[in-house]
Amino acid sequence: MATTPAATAAAPSLRSSRHGGPAHAARRAGTRTAATGAAFGVLASGAFAAIVPTTLDGTSTQADAEEGGTTAATTLAAYSANIPSATKATDGSTTGFFSPVSFAQPSAASGALQAAAPAQDADLASMGKAHEIATKIAAEHAKAAAAEKARQAEKARIDAIVAQGGLDGWIAEALDHMGLSQAYASGLKRIILKESNGNPHAINNWDSNAAAGNPSEGLMQVIPSTFAAYVHPDFADRSITDPIANITAGVRYMIDRYGIDTLDAGGRVGSHGGYIGY
Q1: Contact 246, 240 (CB under 8 A)
Q2: Positive or negative torsion for Cα 185, 148, 235, 159
Q3: How far is the CA of 186 from the CAs of 22, 166, 167, 171, 259, in angstroms?
Q4: d(CA 66, CA 49)
Q5: Cβ distance 269 to 277 under 8 Å?
Q6: Which residues in the chain show pLDDT less than 50?
Q7: Over the Cα atoms of the chain, what is R_g?
Q8: What is the pLDDT of residue 270?
Q9: What is the dotted CATH code of the domain comprising 168-276?
Q10: What integer pLDDT is reported at residue 277 of this predicted model?
Q11: What is the pLDDT of residue 15?
Q12: How far out from the chain centre does Cα 207 lie?
């Protein structure tokens, strides 16, 4: 059909109103802006976006869709593919959502805990050492307490012997006063029995000492000069025949001259096995 000049002139005008002018430019800019924003949205959220040409008032235009050869339905279908996910959906399918990924960075709290770990180990070691020391101290205290208990028991025994009097009581008191063990009591008693038969007033008037005017006297048969030199200072004011004072003088002289083994053995022994006076 022949086209009239009016129709011919009208066609460009219609085309111009569809593709030209500020309104059309604004629509295309809006479409590009929406597409760019959607692209960033896809990257940021892991979702999908469909770019549908719209006008500034939010309504799509059939003309813009036809210009690109697509419609809203085809555009939506093109961008509606499932996005696979490593997380199974509740229905067993592999579609779902992307799980956000976080990169762990050492926080101030975790750093403080890591820094505190060596200190805690040192504290535990110190606690172990303190426990070990406390155990040793407790053992030493228990040992000391046991020793004190034994000493008190021995003292009670000695006191009982001394209270009974007689030779055993004198020996016990003399040894205790000199700080010697009561284990020497039996050897000392043997010496006393050999020297004086347990008589605190015994005097030897027949040996060389007697002939020289210095007779041996008392339980241990000591001469006056020996008594004065060796008697325990606590008994220095007592008589040579005082049982306890005499024993301390004789024992101290014997240890000084022959050694404590002589006291333990009960005196010296000759080649024939008999007792030899000191």
Answers
A1: yes
A2: negative
A3: 136, 14, 11, 9, 17
A4: 20
A5: no
A6: 1-19, 23, 26, 29-52, 54, 56, 58, 60, 62-65, 68, 97-98, 102-103
A7: 61
A8: 86
A9: 1.10.530
A10: 83
A11: 42
A12: 75
pTM value is 0.50
Which helix (H) or strand (E) segment is 203 a member of?
strand 203-204
Helix, strand, coil content of the chain in percent (nearest 5): 65, 5, 35
Look-up of token digits 């499932």: 82
For the chain, what are the domain ranges?
17-97, 119-164, 168-276
Q: Which amino acid is at 35?
A: A
What residues contact residue 253 under an 8 Å CB cut-off, 6+ apart?
222, 226, 229, 230, 278
Structure tokens at 59: 């309504």
Longest dimension (CA), the chain: 187
> What are the beta bridge partners of residue 217?
203, 222
Alpha-carbon gap, residue 102 to 265, rounded angstroms: 92
Q: How many residues appear in the chain?
A: 278
State how far the Cα of 195 lies from the Cα of 220, in Å rounded to an integer. Answer: 6
pLDDT of residue 271: 85
Q: Which among 104, 98, 102, 65 has a CA at the least distance from the CA of 84?
A: 98
Q: Are 188 and 267 in contact (CB under 8 A)?
A: no
